[in-house]
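Annex B, item 7. Sequence and structure tokens for protein A, then protein B.
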Amino acid sequence: MPICQKCGYELVLLSSRPKYKCSLCSKLYPQKEVEAKEFRIKNKLQKELDLQNIKIEYEKEWKQFKEIKKGVQRLFKGPLKTPKDYWKNYFIKNKPKREKWVKDNKLEKDYLVKLKHRLHHYRQRQKKLALLYLKSCKEKLSTNEIFKSPPTFYIPNYCLFRYL
């Protein structure tokens, strides 16, 4: 049903002349204009609906195409390999390389553990030297709570040689 542009009320077709009349505001509209406008609105809505339907059909056809493609691949290339199968075959083919890799990684882990222990040892020694420095220097701290863990980055040479 056509609607009035001014008030939004429904228009009524007058049989005596080719015009539409609004029942509320009594405005007259030519029949060709109103019908052309209604046709454009309905055509636009139909276009949008058709586009949605085409998209849905396209997606269905695309899924079918993918399934057919997979079927053809299986037919001519054999079953598709999963990543798990790929790595399993890779390690079977390259067993010597894998054994070497495991051995190298184990050696590397052992080295890292030894390195951590060595660093811990040297940090402890550095801490002892820093404490010696604090005890031997003439400047005294105002409180003992300031340096619960003294800095280990700088120790002057003249203090170290006295106690080594």
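Protein B:
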Amino acid sequence: MMKLRLTFTLLLGMLGLMACTTATPTPTSVSDSFFSGQAWLDVNTNGQIDAQDIPLPQATFLVRLSKGEFGANTDSSGKAFVTVPGPVEYPVIVTMQAPKDSGLVLLEPSIRTLQAATGESSQFLFGQP
């Protein structure tokens, strides 16, 4: 009788321990989203990006999302790269601002709406007002 009671008690204890454990959540993959932009200075004042134009450093590339705005300055090659933590919902709006105190204006395009991830760099042209 004592052996039966001990077995029953051990069995109930093990069931209780199993009921108290929580399932380990399955890890989900969260990938970041990447955007790039390039700024050009319209040296020949034709309003188009062409071989005569030069890269514009220190312009600010902005990515506008429902969860906020992310930005980065262009480097000496006029390129900027923005990493947004996690996935994003499209459409996404990107734009570029002239370098601070440069007096330059954004010629074309003023903003760009990305409908999907393409891997392409958004190009922006700046000139004198």
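Comment on protein B: The first strand starts at residue 33 and ends at 41.
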